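Sat 14:20. Reprocessing the chain from the morning session after the first attempt stalled halfway. Input below, unchanged.
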Amino acid sequence: MEKKNITLSVALAVYNEEKNLGRCLDSVAGWVDEVVIVDGGSTDSTRDIANKFNAKVIVTDNPPMFHINKQKALEGCTKMWILQLDADEVISDPLRKEIEAIIRTKDSNAPVGYFIPRKNFFLGHWLRKGGQYPDYVIRLFRNGSGKFPSKSVHEQIEIAGDVGYLKEPLLHYTYRTIGEYWKKANAYTQLTADELRSKQTKGFGSYVYFEFIKPSIIFLSLFIRHKGFVDGVYGFLFAIFSALHYPIAYQKYLRMRHEK
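Finished this time. Tokens:
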């Protein structure tokens, strides 16, 4: 099939991603038709890197709910298919071949969107369990079939139609150091705190739930149910750090209420 019939856009939303963006774009260079990047006002060399790869760059502000800019990137795509990525993700060669095969299909009953299994890099270690592999995320879909609701930090792209699954993993180079983890966690916990405030969460029951019950459930789920113990100390740390999300977010929410 001719190249003109295999049209694929890559969509990214970025902010100060000079350490990651080049590696990401290099993994899609030469085989995609368009790269659309929404930049939230980066102050480093992010846009220079994007320009080197001939990306279409849309400069805007950097809202706390970063899915808003991800949705803007989707809306800027003009090709038949969209592959949505984060700057710290990489398309491996086997995944590239699988994606190319998917968008070439002539099957009218094929899914319009696809989950991709993601491998997560944590403190120098590829996590194998603990809910981190396969960490399925919807990233490939026909243009016009998917969107971000932009309401929650943990949301997936919503697909209007059938969704399938790819086999080859997306490589996610996140949390290379503890400092990187907590820098990102600070933003995520603030978003959760904002959600709690919008729901007017309060009372002793809520305090007990978010400070003790919820983190216990998360830790046991990741480390025991999802076998995070297989990854040893890395699995333990990931489960502990993840469990701390809601206590930290709830404390931020309480401070916001007190400052009113």
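Residues 178-259 form one domain.
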